[in-house]
Amino acid sequence: MNNGKINVTVWNEYWHEQSEERIRKVYPEGIHAAVAAALNEAGNFNVTTATLDMPEHGLTQEVLDNTDVLFWWGHCKHGDVSDEIVDRVQKRVIEGMGLICLHSAHFSKIFKRMMATDCSLKWREWAEKERVWVIEPGHPIAQGLGEYFEIEQCEMYGEHFDIPTPDKVVFISWYEGGEVFRSGVTYERGRGRIFYFSPGHESFPIYYNENVKKVLVNAANWAAPRTQLREHICPCVEPLEPIENKAK
Length: 248
Description:
Blueprint: E1 6-12, H1 16-19, H2 21-26, H3 31-42, E2 45-51, H4 61-65, E3 69-73, H5 83-95, E4 98-102, H6 109-115, E5 122-134, E6 148-158, E7 168-175, E8 180-189, E9 192-197, H7 210-223
Parallel strand pairs: 1-2, 1-3, 3-4, 4-9
Antiparallel strand pairs: 5-6, 5-7, 7-8, 8-9
């Protein structure tokens, strides 16, 4: 943290917004800019952004060393992300950096690496209503939310969602077509906290929704490191008490 603020990096593959006019109209400066703006409104974050086409995808060792919480949005370019960068991000999460994976980042290399499952799901893009139910109202990520909130147009994500049993299921979504989905789940890996949040399809202005913005801010606060980040090592040590080494 810097001057009491949480250092956040928002990563986005930034492909749809540059290649499709209909997406650019929704997010003219990119999805990463919309997420960063929501965080900047809160006032307690130092926010920077990074994109796929930057050198080292914008996630150099120096950038990650100075990141408390990393947001990740990806969709069509998961395979273009370097395995070396995924290794680098994974190591930082184990050391204590928070990781927030958004929407189609369920299929990102880093989320699948951290989950060790296929992370597949059902989907349908019919611009239908989503009702997000808060089922852990006492969880910090649900702070300030009501019993539920609604998103008028979204992409449906449905069960079965192939993920490990979450530490907490904070949100479950119901869709107009009848499906349900575990839309907000948490994990801990090493010293790092992970939150997956499904609302946020590129075709719809979901990241301007006030309740969604509140979730993003709450998640960043929750995922921030609670202890000093340090290298994760596995040292060989001498015994505390005198004993005979029978392995010689």
